[in-house]
Amino acid sequence: ICRVISTQLIEAGVDIDFPVVYRAETGLDSIAQAAGRCNREGKLAEGQVIVFQLDEEKKRKGPSHLRQRIQAADDIFRKLDDDGDPLAPGVVKNYFRKLFWAKGKEELDKLKIGKQLIAMGQKLNIPFRDIGEKFRFIAEGGYSVIIPWDESSTELVERLRYPGVESNQLRKAQRYTVSIYFKDLENLSAMGALETLQERFIVLKPAAVKFFYSEKLGLLTEKDLISPEWFVF
Question: What pTM value is reported for the model?
Fold first, then answer.
């Protein structure tokens, strides 16, 4: 028996096939992507996709965009007949109508790109460079942090402390690098867990590794996950 526990990353084009898929409630688009990993090869008469509800407290603490997607999907599900197809084109269309209405025009065009295109497009004077600099599929970029969790990576970090880093060492560093959001970077910095080498390499301090890194969970960024022993220092 093979069981996979994953983040939503697995929904984006990963070619795997399971008879049963469990997905925490979310937007209908993500549910459709998760369902695409169920009976993908059509070897069964039918697969089973189970969408389970989140704890209400966790849902309230979640990001607003996720709450909006969950609410829009809930509204759609409540109006479906027992034998209705939640992924029918008309149903998905209604879901996005609800979602976009909930977000509002200002939220959908925060950077005013749409308005800029309308205004300048009529004159055939489209500012491609300006729009290209503003537009991002993922608005918040990641920050790379090197984790010296074994002997080899610890030796590598020591080399990175000095000028003259070779290209093969940089490639090797990628094996021990994770990407985190700015908020997580701030949290780790505030707890004194990070150091910057040569003003370019962000590294988890060797002394902090056993408190902030788990072989099962990866890099820990939240205080309640980190061993209290660290905060003695």
Answer: 0.55
